Amino acid sequence: MINLDLIVGARPNFMKIAPIIREIERRASKGDAVRYRLVHTGQHYDRNMSGSFFEELGIPEPHVNLNVGSGSQAEQTAGIMIGYEKLLTDRKSNLCVVVGDVTSTMACAIAAKKLLVPVAHIEGGIRSGDMTMPEEINRIVTDSITDYFFTTSETANSNLRRSGVEAQRIFFVGNTMIDTLIYSRPQFRKPALWDSLNLEEKSYIVLTLHRPNNVDDPANLRRLLDEISNSSEGMQIIFAVHPRTRKIINSFKNPLSPSIFIAEPLGYLEFNYLVERSQAVITDSGGITEETTVMGVPCMTLRNSTERPETVTLGTNELLGTNPDSITPAMQKLLTGQWKKGTIPPLWDGHTAERIIEIICNLNPKSLNNKTELT
Ligand code: UD1
Question: Is 325 helix (H, G, I), strand (E, B) or coil?
Fold first, then answer.
């Protein structure tokens, strides 16, 4: 029997793990010897940052919640490591599976590896090259101790090979976030604001911003928002606001342009209903650039770099940088119908979780921790 720990902590983890759980349950139900323990670190804890995703994506209640809650980078990292180390000391698993690049990813990888539990990293190998992002540090630290890499792109493969990882530990499998997108697309749900704002297809823009570089300085955030509303010719901007950004917006003295509608963070099915029908998305998220690429929706990314270059070279994404002056020319391109069309990157086909679990089930048992007491 292979017992996997599946680690989730923050919003972008949930859509990456959902198809993995579905596939393990499918295989277990036909008698395959694979089981999982779902560990939620509690890094995100609000209903609209965490709970609603479990319901919408059909993720079962976590077996364990480490309840780490808010804190500085070091406080969250330390809290998660302490909690997960205790859990593993009580009951080891054969393999710790982490996803993405959040604090929980890195903290659990370290705790597992020090207790001799091998680590598999889903979405391993991607790099932005921007060491001011906590996520980049999380990626580098996690990958430096990861045993098995499940990658989303050829760029990730070559990043790993360049850093000395042997080819037999790298598995190019595609993107589990896209598994979730393809699986959930028929269930996308109209949010209440669609009718209350009289939205119509392609008549509005979806906006999300949460990176410290963009939102922590109120004057900078304000300039970005003013530039977006000034350049979009009155189009409605639906701003799905992350709690981090909400705190800064609340401190503004003057109201924002009426074309900007401030919404609470939306559930997965409602958010992607909006994205699929939007004229374009403006964001500083990484995952959203992958989803817009697959849905063929123009995407403007307010960052100087991306760890997902295929969304630019193949997909619909363009990097605008963080200078508000770059927004107007990009908006012109959009409004005059000149945005590129894009194609879908290789293996982003909805079947990545099947490939991952097949590979894990075929790993040499000697390479897994075999001191597990789970049954
Ligand atoms: C984290 C991830 C980032 C990911 C983002 C998506 C790291 C380093 N960053 O950033 O990669 O793109 O999640 O959402 O792991 N808060 C709430 N309710 C919650 C969760 C957070 O109010 O449920 C508040 C926190 O108290 C904090 C702020 O939001 O003030 C930021 O949360 P935090 O977990 O520190 O990181 P994110 O900015 O969400």
Answer: helix
pLDDT digits (tens, 9 = 90+) for 199-233: 999 999 999 999 999 999 999 999 999 999 999 99
User: How far is the centre of ligand 1, averaged over its atoms, from the C-alpha of 337 (Å)?
Assistant: 35
The pTM assigned to this predicted structure is 0.95
Residues 6+ apart with CB under 8 A from 80: 9, 41, 43, 66, 68, 103, 104, 107, 108, 111
Vertex 128: Cα angle to 122 and 130 (nearest 5): 130
Distance 249 CA to ligand 1 centre (A): 16
Per-residue b or e along 47-75, where b marks 16 or more CB atoms closer than 10 Å to that residue's CB: eebbebbbebbebeebebebebeeeeeee
Among the atoms of ligand 1, which is closest to the Cα of residue 49? Answer: 23
Token output for 24: 């393990």
CA of 62 to the centre of ligand 1 (A): 19
Residue nearest to atom 9 of ligand 1 (CA): 102
Cα–Cα distance measured from residue 375 to residue 373, given in angstroms and rounded to the nearest whole number: 6
